[in-house]
């Protein structure tokens, strides 16, 4: 199955395996890719393995973020789904960024004016992030989504004395910073509420939220996507075509003689 969306594009390579990219981030210069595999589906329980890669590059600067995680989804009732996940993330920057070349949609003019890089940056860290979500189905078409995520633990692995410019942090909605060890859930978090409408092939999601850094909730709260293809869809087309062909053959064939 192929999903074409304003915020995310995904392609099903194999059964239960998808790869994709977040289109707006690509447009802003944050090149990215993601993958998802569902190794286990047992009754109301679904287990997904996920990973993503995000990078911002200039001639003398590179910032990257890589993550891998696990999400467990449970259909608690016919109208309620619960999702719990955790991700391990690695974040790093190296070099001297030119802020004027970073999309204004990622940073603002007042942030840029306050920073002059005199020495190249060198910083890396890792951390663990928790994801919580629930979907409440109002009917077969409409549902309400509640989503939250927060960095719970982080560690600086190099560049302890480096102070990251705010534009670099803001360009990475899931960056890992702060003191080593367990973190306050409010140091880096997002929370949002969204309405979703699912038609036969079209899906629409509209929501609002808040977080730190600001606007890091937006990509998960807005979506307009169209789905097509997939094994099930192909099988349905083959069955319909075979049924039409059989019906046409029956009309053309002579009646069998009575015995």
The coarse overall form would be globular
Q: Count the helices. How many?
A: 5
Largest sheet: 12 strands, antiparallel, barrel
Mean pLDDT: 81
According to DSSP, the number of beta strands is 13
Unreliable segments (pLDDT under 50, ≥5 consecutive)?
252-259
Would you tell me the structural class of the helices and strands? Answer: alpha+beta
- Termini, distance in Å? 51 Å
Any idea what the radius of gyration is?
24 Å
Approximate strand percentage: over 45%
Q: What percentage of residues falls in helices of 4 or more residues?
A: 10-25%
Can you tell me about this structure?
The chain has helices spanning 23-27, 109-113, 166-170, 218-221, 231-252, and strands spanning 2-5, 9-14, 17-21, 31-42, 45-58, 61-77, 80-95, 121-137, 142-158, 181-182, 189-198, 202-212, 223-228. It has 259 residues and is of the alpha+beta class. The longest helix is centred in the C-terminal third of the chain and has 22 residues, at 231-252.
């Amino acid at each position: 199955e192929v999903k074409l969306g304003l915020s995310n594009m995904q392609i099903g390579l194999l059964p239960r395996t998808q790869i994709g990219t977040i289109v707006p981030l690509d447009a802003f210069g944050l090149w990215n890719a993601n993958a998802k595999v569902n190794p286990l589906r047992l009754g109301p329980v679904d287990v997904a393995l996920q990973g993503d890669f995000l990078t911002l590059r200039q001639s003398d600067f590179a910032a990257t973020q890589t993550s891998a995680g696990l999400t467990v989804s449970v259909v608690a009732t016919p109208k309620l789904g619960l999702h719990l996940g955790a991700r391990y993330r690695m974040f790093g920057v190296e070099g001297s960024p030119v802020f004027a070349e970073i999309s204004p949609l990622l940073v603002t003019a007042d942030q840029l004016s306050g920073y002059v890089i005199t020495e190249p940056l060198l910083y890396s860290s890792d951390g663990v992030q928790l994801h919580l979500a629930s979907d409440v189905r109002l009917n077969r078409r409409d549902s309400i989504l509640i989503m939250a995520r927060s960095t719970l633990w982080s560690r600086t692995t190099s560049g302890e004395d480096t102070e990251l410019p705010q534009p670099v942090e803001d360009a990475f909605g899931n960056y890992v910073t702060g003191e080593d060890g367990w973190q306050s859930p409010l140091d880096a978090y997002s929370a949002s509420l969204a309405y979703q409408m699912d038609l036969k092939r079209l899906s629409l999601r509209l929501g609002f939220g808040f977080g730190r850094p600001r606007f890091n909730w937006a990509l998960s709260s807005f979506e307009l996507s169209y789905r097509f293809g997939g094994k099930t869809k192909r099988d349905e087309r083959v069955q319909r075509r075979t049924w039409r062909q059989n019906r046409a053959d029956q009309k053309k064939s002579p009646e069998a003689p009575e015995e």
